[in-house]
Write a structure and sequence with these properties.
globular, disordered C terminus
Length: 292
């Protein structure tokens, strides 16, 4: 798609990947950026950075899990600042825990924000894009939308669902000249990820690297934008040797998941120690798990 001179709406724009995407689009000449998140103060700070680049910034504090609030916000935004040419669904939350210890309120929040909030906003924007027969929608999934990770069951489920949603929309909305793409970052160094236990050998990406990958993907109209060589390696490993990837994930999982291994030495625990020595010293990441 053409970036320069157009209008974009970005959710989760107050920090992390969403913020980096907003700044990158402003740098590429996007005329106006509509920034949505729950933290109004942080949104205002991002808007100042964007305006310093010569682009216009519009901020709106919205809770995407409240459908009525979202509906009103979209109507106001489209009337006052539209039409919107690019929608980037970046808002998301993640909790890390073993499935047997998961708590229903956290599960509900992940489903509400990552899926239902994205669905509500996309349905409202897509209808308007269809009427103008033009637009691009980018749904931020994750490497965990391709490769599920232990201790992140619900988060992985939402990211797999986002990919399925994106693939269906891509076919349905093509007749209206609407491009639908998925962005799949690997582990990214954001505030959300800093609260998680990292998988062994993972080298986090920066939000800026993810944003630059999105810019390249928009310009080439790729349906899925895998970010980083770690993501490509994991996906290819899953296709060619899924058993190997499962073993790597089991070995690389956060220590709490494999505490029982310390009680009784086994082949897996010996492999684990060997990989720690060989792979960690050589700083070779085998697979990554996100945070978004």
């Amino acid at each position: 798609m053409k970036i320069q001179g157009n209008i974009a709406l970005i959710t989760g724009a107050s920090r992390g990947i969403g913020k980096a995407i907003a700044l990158a689009l402003a740098q590429q000449g996007m005329k106006r950026l509509i920034l949505i998140a729950r933290d109004h103060q942080k949104l205002a700070q991002v808007a100042q950075e964007i305006e310093a680049m010569g682009a216009e910034a519009v901020i709106m504090s919205v809770d995407l899990t409240r459908a009525t609030e979202v509906n009103i916000a979209v109507a106001q935004l489209w009337r006052n600042h539209g039409p919107i040419h690019l929608l980037v669904n970046c808002a998301g939350v993640a909790y890390q825990t073993s499935f047997l210890r998961s708590k229903l309120p956290q599960v509900q929040e992940e489903l509400s924000v990552n899926l239902l909030g994205m669905y509500t906003l996309t349905s409202l924007i897509a209808r308007r894009m269809a009427s103008q027969r033009q637009g691009t929608i980018v749904n931020v999934s994750s490497l965990m939308g391709k490769v599920a990770a232990p201790t992140m069951a619900t988060y992985s489920a939402t990211k797999f669902a986002i990919l399925g949603f994106t693939q269906a929309l891509r076919q349905e909305l093509a007749q209206y000249n609407i491009q639908v793409q998925a962005l799949l970052p690997s582990l990214t160094d954001t505030d959300m990820v800093r609260n998680l236990q990292l998988f062994r050998w993972v080298i986090p990406m920066t939000p800026q690297q993810v944003a630059q990958a999105l810019i390249a993907g928009l310009q080439s109209d790729r349906p899925e934008i895998l970010v980083g060589w770690q993501s490509h390696l994991a996906v290819w490993c899953q296709r060619l040797a899924p058993w190997l990837l499962e073993l790597i994930l089991k070995i690389a999982a956060p220590p709490g998941l494999n505490q029982h291994l310390a009680e009784k030495p086994s082949l897996l625990s010996r492999i684990n120690r060997f990989c720690d020595v060989v792979l960690f010293r050589n700083v070779i990441p085998l697979v990554s798990a996100r945070k978004s």
